[in-house]
């Protein structure tokens, strides 16, 4: 039995955080980040005990753009004003559309089926598992039904 004498795979991990920070030019001790972290206390008022029926109030963060948000109905006016103020300050951080997410390649979130040019898409007939696999599948389905997963 041979043992590896040199394993260089562990040394590559040490530099990942530093390289990512250099590439994106991140500043982890920035004033904006600490201010935002302090403002996140306002978000606790959102949906702690609210049902979906209570999410009634719709607001627009900007007059010129359509930036709709829906907040809880049970907020006091002061809490609502604070929440809207924080959201207006940080509205660029929210991805309103997929096209608004900078730096993300569209090929990551788009689904494509690569086919040859002459290929015609066809629907194949449903296949049945063999009897031993069918019993295992039935047991798994009944187990999930009993647990309330499906």
TrEMBL record:
Domain of life: Eukaryota
Gene3D superfamilies according to UniProt: HIV Type 1 Reverse Transcriptase, subunit A, domain 1 (3.10.10.10)
Protein name: Reverse transcriptase domain-containing protein
Annotated source species: Mucuna pruriens
Record lineage: Eukaryota, Viridiplantae, Streptophyta, Embryophyta, Tracheophyta
């Amino acid at each position: 039995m041979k043992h590896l004498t040199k394993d260089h795979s562990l040394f590559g991990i040490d530099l990942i955080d530093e390289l990512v920070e250099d590439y994106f030019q991140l500043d982890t001790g920035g004033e904006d980040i600490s201010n935002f972290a302090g403002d996140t206390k306002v978000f606790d008022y959102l949906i702690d005990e609210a049902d979906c029926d209570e999410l009634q109030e719709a607001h627009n963060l900007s007059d010129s753009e359509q930036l709709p948000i829906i907040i809880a109905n049970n907020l006091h006016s002061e809490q609502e004003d604070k929440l809207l103020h924080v959201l207006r300050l940080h509205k660029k951080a929210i991805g309103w559309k997929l096209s608004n997410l900078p730096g993300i390649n569209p090929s990551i979130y788009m689904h494509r089926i690569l086919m040859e040019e002459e290929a015609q898409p066809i629907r194949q007939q449903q296949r049945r598992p063999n009897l031993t696999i069918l019993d295992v599948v039935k047991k798994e389905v009944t187990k999930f039904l009993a647990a309330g997963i499906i």
